[in-house]
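Submission sheet (multi-component)
Chains listed below:
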Amino acid sequence: MSQSDNDEQSMVSEIYKAAAKPEPSEVLDAKVLNMAKQQSSSKNVKSSQIQNASKSNRTPFYMKWQYSGSIAASVLIIGFLFVSHSPEEFDAIPRNTMQDELLSPAPEQRRMRAAEAMTSDIQSESLESADKFNELASDAMNASKMRLEAAPVNQKEIAALQAEAAFILAALHESDHKSKLTSEGLKDLSELSENVQGSSRQRDEQTQASLQQQLFKTLKALKEKEPNWALDDSFKAVLSAEQIEDLVAISAHK
Amino acid sequence: MATSAKRLIGKTLNPVSDESLMKQYANGDFAAFETLYARNKGGLYRYLLRQLRDQSLTEDIFQDVWGKVITNAAEYQTTAKFTTWLYTIARNKVIDNKRHMKLVDGAIEKDKLFDDQTMSIDEQAQASSISQQPHALHESTEQSLAIEHCLQKLPRHQLEAFLLREEAGLSAQHIADIVNTNLEATKSRLKVAFKNLRECLNLKLALEHQASSANIKEPRL
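Outcome: structure written.
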């Protein structure tokens, strides 16, 4: 800024300062000051209330976050451990992908996809075990058929019962294996798949119980026909204590 | 020079800054507000009056501005200069009022109203200066009237910048912050405002001199 500009400014400024200076009226001053006074007194009341409140509540506000923070951290840690220590059945799916799918706050579609992937694997394992069962069952049937053919005429009924018992036992073992597989394998699935799992598990238990009952009946019939027939350990493992006692009592009675 | 000297004296006499006074008031110290108000009331009042050119409207807006300062005292940040904050509130109120006036009245009616009010302000200023200083020099009265006249002729943006400089004592940077322009534009606006005022004053005072000398000569003739 040049010297002439400065001179010009100072000259104008001096004239302006020397000119009449209207001021707010006293009434206006009183209004503003009164407004400020009221606000100030209400502020004092408020601040004293806050001070009293803070004195009565000893826990500082920021400390209240520790509870929610620790809860969130615990949930995260448990979730991580739960997923990282999932059963071996889950290894069929690449672990990282599965964890990502389950842990990430993904939309419902993704979670459904993860659940589908896991159930499809379990289903494939179930199919494998079903094949195994078919093999075992056909072996048992063949063995019992051979025994039936080889057995004398009076022993044919006993041999048939023995074959039936062996078949039921094989079926029981298969059912037991399957229920274990489903109960462990589906443990980590989402809520939706858990409902499906629950119903299938219930169905398996019912099948197992009926097979056990059928085996008991067959063995009972066998014992009545042939009291000297010794109860194999494989049968004892499947039957309940009461059922074993009943069978022993039959042979003792005879 | 004289202005800066006065500011220095003011600061020496009142060592407590506006910002700390505002902070004290926010903590409930009413006496701090009294000091703050006494310091800034005149400048703010004139800033509003010279732009609005209506005394009752000026009083309403003046009260509104201080009302806002009072209610928002707790939110006031000491990093901002108090006068910058105060005049930003005042400017926004003036703009709001002008928008409102545009909507309510037509532009022609508004101009007419302003002309009438301008006359009344001229009369008020003249009356107050005469009543306050009955033995005032004729020259100073002439200058006062001339500056009042020239301020009314000044374009709105230049007038705003000039008033912020003279009444609030703000630097070009602070003025730029308030009026939302860059520093260079504000400097240029101030320069043009002072130049226009100077030219207007010279012309007005010359005319006054001519008129007064003619009046003196007339009886002789």
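Remark: Residues 15 and 197 of chain B are 34 Å apart (CA to CA).
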